[in-house]
Amino acid sequence: MVDVRSAEQHPLLEAALGARGNLGHARVEVVEEARSLVVEVPGAGDDPDHDDHEHDGEAGDPAGGGLRGNGHGALESGGSPSPSPRYARAVQRRIFIGDIQGCREELERLLEEIRFDPAADRLEPVGDLVNRGPDSAGCLRLLASLDAGGVLGNHDLALLATARGTRPERKSDTFGDVLRGEDRVELLGWLASRPFVRPFEDLVLVHGGFSPAWKDPIAVLLAEDPNDPGPAASAAVTIRFCDPEGNLARGMDPAPPPYRPWHELFDRTRVGGRTVVFGHWARQGLLLKPGFRGLDSGCVWGGKLTGWIAEEDRIVQVDARRAYAGI
Q: Per residue in 267-283, pLDDT tens?
């Protein structure tokens, strides 16, 4: 079990905070870069989906249609796109990857199938990089070595909370290889520098989704701290069904009226007409509809690991080697 102490006293967290110079400084750089991309819009258990509340008690509930991106940095009609993220190298393809959850072998096979080119391609995982699968540490090492982007998911937050001592390690957790690895400081530092939302000029990446109650979802989530997540962060990594006011239907899938899938209630003009790329919903599975790409296809449950190549609007999948978590 991981030592339970305050965040200030926990040696593993303190070390991670100092990794790669200063983790706080690294996060400021991520946030400040992403802030420059915001388009201001006026006004306007055993179940594959039983992981909604991996950080229950940390936060509560928060108080479709539109334009479609063409994958090349422009909107097909209307709108005024903001600058793309400033990559350190030329990027020809952005490859968004569904929930990996420690399935390193499947991730490697998917990259082979996609013919991933580290010199020209950029990986953007949808979050839930760790837990339930057999090799959480291997996934983080591989993604960090490939300079992946991506966002945080609820299982990633569970790992960070366990490392800082605010959540006990559970029997069902499979990220002990990260917590006890020789390179744990570097791995935790890299993971904690992921944001909750990553906007591009034509797309926006989030793990679970956006509350229909948020006027400016990108700004809301850029203000959230991975080491001290609040209600908005909790909603962004756990939302599936909600009502028009943004109240979540916790533990219900499917949920009765007035609850509906969040993407049926969300107005994409609030993210500048961008296509929303997300994961977190294995029971729903792969979702491809105008303005939305849902990429969780339940790899850890014996399903598939999905990649979406944005510039080609193309799906590539590999089968899970086996089910790592029981249904």
A: 999 999 999 999 999 99
